[in-house]
Design goal:
The complex is a heterodimer.
Chain A lengths: L5 E9 L4 E9 L4 E5 L6 H8 L7 E6 L2 E2 L4 H5 L2 E4 L11 H11 L5 H10 L13 H13 L5 E5 L7 H14 L6 E6 L2 H7 L2 E6 L2 E7 H7 L1 E6 L12 E7 L2 E6 L4 H9 L3 E7 L2 H22 L1
Parallel strand pairs in A: 3-8, 3-9, 6-7, 7-8
Antiparallel strand pairs in A: 1-2, 1-4, 4-5, 9-10, 11-13, 11-14, 12-13
Chain B lengths: L1 H13 L12 H8 L3 H13 L3 E4 L3 E4 L5 H23 L4 H19 L1
Antiparallel strand pairs in B: 1-2
Helix pairs in contact in B: 1-3, 2-3
The chains are: A alpha/beta, B mainly alpha.
Chain lengths: 303, 116
């Protein structure tokens, strides 16, 4: 097993109105990590810590085997970072930017850059300020991809893009991980993109990691059971149940630890199972956030 | 999502596009081609292997299994899946095994009448 591309443990960072607490993150080589959270959850701050742009108050940060922020210069040679507030020069052309990046990074692959221009349908002679939002994101991604960095850190790369541009970008990201030594962390609140291309998913909310697992495990263990509860019977305590809503004789139980035994327990208790549904990542994400917020608030109220 | 990939591969084999012994794309190549995560394609290959549809040789790749009659076997497996689903619905409705079987009989009769 090769060394993880990202290995973060116990990272804290306090701001006046926001705090990251005990953040742990791991990205194995050859994988795509989907970093999912609501707006303001701490995704961008975490990514900035991975770039050595923000110094954490405590905890350990290793990226590409380098300890940050001390060895950030060495690590950055092999990291490609794209965020929403990319610093491109509006009055310069895309071609100017390509020559600029090529002059800094010896690994710049001019042939691949040309291929990307075609695939992304970009005009090198166009000035950055004349580009649409989608074109600007693709331009920033091109400038990073053509360096062929081992690690890509992408902050909301598909937010606000039309379906065609999203498709072009996801295709390019999947192409990157044909190489088992490379990896991608991308943050998003678009769970559809994350569900499609991520191998591993980490949820963050209010500065805390609330869940982390490989994608298949997530999709397998979260289920929604629609039950018919005859008068005089009660729903038994079911493993991993995070939410139960009832209306009349019908109840819906959401569990994060599904197994066939749960169905057996329902039948033994005298309930009729009408349906067992898989959940989309979006549904899992919302249920996860809501249930953990409730648990936390209940815990705080009890103190 | 892995179920869709399994379905696509089974179909290609069933229609003869991928004959026995045919080499499947590598997991990473297929993942890039269909733009679905590597872990999902990996899971699809593992399940197909478990069902005997493909065989994986260490370091060589994955191949369509050398069954004489794979098309029929796949169709039979599909039939079993549907029957299993029917049994599941019957149980969920609180029906006895005999009641579920009676409905299957009724389906045979309905088909016979339609075709006669």
């Amino acid at each position: 097993m090769t060394e993880p591309l990202i290995q973060v443990d116990g990272v804290d960072k306090a701001y006046r109105f926001f705090r990251l607490s005990n953040v742990a993150l791991r990205l194995e080589a050859g994988q795509i990590l989907g970093f999912v959270g609501p707006n303001g959850a701490g995704k961008s701050t975490t990514i900035r810590i991975l770039m050595g742009m923000v110094q954490p108050d405590g905890g350990s940060v290793r990226v590409l085997g380098r300890i940050l922020p001390g060895e950030q210069a060495a690590a950055k040679q092999d990291i490609g970072f794209v965020s929403e507030d990319m610093h491109l020069y509006g009055s310069e052309t895309l071609d100017w930017h390509m020559r600029f990046v090529a002059s800094i990074y010896p690994a710049w692959d001019a042939g691949y850059a040309q291929t990307l221009l075609r695939r992304f349908n970009l005009q090198p002679a166009q000035r950055v300020k004349a580009l649409s939002h989608g074109e600007r994101v693709k331009a920033a991604l091109l400038l990073v991809l053509a360096r062929r960095p081992r690690l890509l850190l992408l902050d909301e790369p598909t937010t606000g893009l039309d379906p065609v541009a999203r498709h072009e970008i996801l295709a390019e990201l999947m192409d990157v991980v044909r190489d088992e030594r490379r990896g991608i962390l991308f943050s998003s609140h678009n769970t559809q993109d994350v569900e499609q291309i991520s191998d591993h998913i980490t949820f963050i909310d209010r500065g805390r990691i609330i869940d982390s697992s490989d994608k298949e495990t997530f999709l397998d263990r979260w289920r929604r059971l629609s039950l018919e509860v005859p008068a005089g019977t009660a729903i038994p305590a079911l493993p991993g149940a995070v939410e139960t809503t009832s209306s009349g004789r019908l109840a819906v139980v959401t569990t994060k630890a599904y197994s066939p035994e749960i169905e057996e327990a329902c039948v033994r208790a005298g309930l009729t199972i009408r349906e067992v549904q898989r959940m989309t990542l979006e549904e899992i994400f919302v249920a996860n956030v809501m249930s953990q917020r409730e648990a936390r608030e209940a815990g705080e109220a009890a103190r | 999502m892995y179920l869709q990939i399994i379905e696509q591969i089974r179909r290609r084999i069933a229609v003869g596009d991928w004959p026995p012994g045919h080499e499947l794309p590598s997991i990473r190549a297929l993942a890039a081609a269909v733009q679905v995560s590597v872990i999902t394609v990996k899971r699809a290959y593992l399940e197909l292997e478990r069902d005997g549809v493909i065989v994986t040789r260490q370091g060589k790749g994955s191949f369509v299994a050398e069954h004489a009659d794979l098309g029929r076997q796949l169709r039979l497996a599909e039939l079993d899946q549907h029957l299993d689903a029917a049994v599941g619905i019957g149980r969920a409705l609180g029906m006895s095994d005999a009641e579920v079987a009676a409905r299957l009989d009724a389906a045979f009769k309905a088909r016979d009448e339609k075709e006669s």
